[in-house]
Structures are given as C-alpha cells and as structure tokens.
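Good day; I would like, with your permission, to put a structural problem before you. A protein sequence and the structure tokens that stand for its backbone fold form the material at issue. Thank you for your consideration; the sequence and its tokens are set out here:
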Amino acid sequence: MNRSEYASCRLCPRECGVNRLAGRRGFCGETAVCRIASAEAHFGEEPPFTGRRGSGTIFFSGCSSRCFFCQNYQISQGGIGTELDMEELVAAAERLIGQGVHNLNFVTPDHFWPHIRDLAWELRRRGHSIPLLWNSSGYHRADRISEYAEAVDIFLPDFKFADSTLAHCVMGDGRYPEFALSSLRAMVEAKGFLEPFDETGGETARRGVLVRHLVLPGHIGNSIEVLRLLHREFGSELPLSLMSQFRPVAACRTRGMLARRLSLEEYRRVCDEAERLGFDRAFIQPEPGDEAFFPDFEKERPFEGNLRAVLGIRSGGTHGVAGS
C-alpha cells in the first residue's frame, strides 16, 4: 500500500504540502490515518443510486472545501470520525455489499484517495463487481481525475459556484469555478453522462456522471449562471440534480450570511431556467428536503430517514424528475 502521497500532500487544489504521514493535519483537517463517520445503506440519494436497497454510503471525515454552510459540518470540520486501518475499511465495505446495496458511495473522498485506491483494488481482487461512486464537492485537481476514473465507475460531483466572489466568501477560494469545470470535463471524458436506469428502482446506474447543484438562498444569480455555464460546456443532455434542501447551520447565523431557508419561489426560478435551457435529465426536489435526511453524526445512525426506509415507511428520497 503506497501512502507516499500523504508525505507532502497535494491531493486537492489547496496543495498544502503538509506531511500527513508524520501526524500533521492538512487543510482538510486529516492526517494519513483514514477516518470515517458513517457507513450504512442510504435512501436519500437520487433514484439512480438509491434504488430499492439503498446506496452504500461511506462518509469520510474532513474536507478540503470546508464550506461554512456544510450540512455535514460535524464531520467536514467538526472532527467527528472513527479511525480505520485498511482491513477494517475493506470489512466495512463488504458489510454494505452483503446488505445488498446497489453501489458503494464514497462521500468526500478526495483527501483519502490512496486509501480508496487500495480499497477499490482489493474489492475487485475479491471478485466484487458492485459500482463504485465518487460523491464529491467538485473541488478537484483535474489532473487527478484519470486516476480516480481507473478505480470508480460513477462520478457524482457538486457544481457549487459559478460566482468566484461567492466561492471566496463561502470556502476561501475564488478559483472554485475553474477547478470544478476543468475536473468535470475530465469526468465526462472518462465516463460519459450517466447511463439510463430503471426508474422503478429495479436497476440502478452503473456508470457515468451526474452533477449536483444546491440552490442557495439569496444567490439565485449564482445558480442560474451555473446552469448556463454547464449548458454551454456540455449541452442539455447533461444529467443534473437541482437541490432545494439548504438548511442554515450555526456558522451561517454567526457570519450573518445564508441564515435562512430557500424560498419555493427562488427554487422555482432556478428550475424554470433549467427548463428554458432544455435540461430534460434533471432531478428536482419539489419539497425543500426531508428533515429526516439532515444528519446528526453524533448518533450511531446519523440519518433517521434511513431507518424509516428500512422499515418500509418510505421508498426513497424527495427527488422527482423534471418534466415527468
């Protein structure tokens, strides 16, 4: 197992150069010891990934984006997580596979890429053919995407900001739009758009790219520019997920920014723009997100909605398909 990339870490666009092997923490907040906050079947993702049996999500601790509004702030910035060695990480993945999940969903994985590369290799060596999904912020070095693509089957990146000033305010790096766009180009080149799937949940996606965008209250212009940028680059066939689930966390109130929920009118304006541009493979959230899928990582099972799903009370997330 090669861990040399942690010695002077440049895995993400921050390129902080920290020696994580020596126990120092990078900008992401993590050393070279892998930590995860949760590993369970998740039923709040988009239908191509959730299906009937859930997406096998593994939430990695730490994050190189560190957006102050993050709904997963407890693990992205708050330090929650459990240390795992490689054997334990493989065991966690195999437990999910044994539960029948449709895919393994690596959430915020960039800063633990050497571990994930070895995990993917070991799972394939053991004969597992389950799709591997890279669920990320969109804030990547484009020159690393080809490496990721050798290991994973599906890319599920965010495209948070077209407005560089907003990006700087939220995450401290106004270069986000250029990094997100160049890395998305590489993802689409490597895997293509998300392949068709059975909308009844019998068959889920096995390959391709779907882009997420979270609409932020008071910043509809940013969302509209994101849609226009994506349309210019990739056309109207690009699969999208337009999310209305924004919920203010404590840091929003402290900063006096993004301190309210998104209004239905704001969200509708973004959906109208997506329709005007001709995006017909867009998932939407007619409701402002299910509160049961707002996580509390201090609990053994962070998402109450997953328990409801297992008990048969619900059949998936709140995503609909535009135009359906």
About this structure: The chain has eleven helices and eleven strands. Residues 313-318, 320-324 have pLDDT under 50 and may be disordered. The domain at 4-321 is CATH 3.20.20.70 (TIM Barrel). The chain has one domain: 4-321.
